[in-house]
Design brief:
Elements lengths: L6 H30 L4 H11 L4 H25 L6 H39 L2 H7 L4 H39 L4 H9 L4 H28 L3 H35 L1
Length: about 260
């Protein structure tokens, strides 16, 4: 007996394949524009400020919250196994290698992907992007490349700030329970840190930055249907960028273990 897929499942699969095909074409145009054109330095600096400095408060707050939570949770677990002296190293390694990169990428995807999607979506439905093309201005060179490059450059720096605030907050939470100088906390913690522990998060966050910037721009430039359509595509930009960041993290963790060890 031959079984057939439901029509809704077939149409859903076709839509997913179409999305990946369109996104692949979009990325190929973006790479060609990036390799064949000069960068808009003023626009790039403006986007770096938009992605970087304006995201810093929420990233720092998220990093500090994670540091406090990790300190409180790990302390009880390590005491149970008689390894309380390893608390500084565990906090620092956990924050540097995994927690700070993924938390930063998710926080930035919520803020930046939404902003990029809404801005480009509004330009698309009001035909401003068509006007740029009619004026012989490549929208990929002016609108897309600057935003993607800004995300790739700034998310690693934001991750560094999140890690610093997380480590300081972890020390502060531990110091409230058992006084320990910050110098001793950092010395004990960084004894176990190697160069590869810094390299892997930087590589990951560059990939996360590309995902956030590219999907935000792609969804924004696909927007149609007026204000309602802009809202719908903006929401999808946030959801898809966060989803692909998580999936990329799963793949990159194993890949970087192979490459860096």
């Amino acid at each position: 007996m031959q079984t057939t897929l439901p029509i809704s499942l077939k149409s859903g699969a076709i839509q997913i394949l179409e999305w990946f095909g369109e996104f692949g074409i979009f990325c190929s145009r973006m790479f060609r524009a990036g390799l064949s054109s000069k960068y808009q330095i003023k626009e790039l600096i403006r986007q770096m400020d938009e992605v970087g400095s304006k995201s810093l408060p929420v990233v720092a707050l998220a990093g500090a919250a994670i540091g406090v939570v990790m300190s409180m949770q790990l302390r009880d677990s390590l005491i149970r196994f008689g390894a309380k002296s390893m608390l500084p190293a565990v906090i620092i390694l956990s924050i540097l290698k995994e927690t700070a990169p993924i938390i930063t990428a998710l926080v930035v995807s919520g803020r930046v992907a939404a902003g990029i999607g809404a801005e480009l979506g509004s330009m698309k439905v009001t035909e401003q992007i068509d006007a740029l093309e009619a004026s012989a201005v490549d929208p990929f060179r002016f609108l897309v490349i600057t935003r993607v490059v800004a995300c790739v450059l700034m998310i690693p720096l934001l991750t560094l700030f999140a890690a610093c605030f997380g480590i300081l907050a972890g020390w502060f939470a531990n110091n409230l329970v058992e006084p320990l100088s910050i110098r001793l906390f950092l010395v004990d913690g960084f004894k176990q840190v190697e160069y590869s522990d810094f390299l892997a998060p930087v590589l990951k966050t560059c990939v996360f930055g590309f995902i956030v910037g590219a999907i935000g721009c792609f969804q924004g430039m696909k927007a149609k249907g007026g204000a309602e359509g802009v809202g719908r595509y903006t929401t999808s930009a946030v959801v898809l960028s966060a989803l692909f960041v998580i999936l990329a993290d799963v793949v990159l963790v194993r890949l970087l273990i192979i490459l860096c060890d």
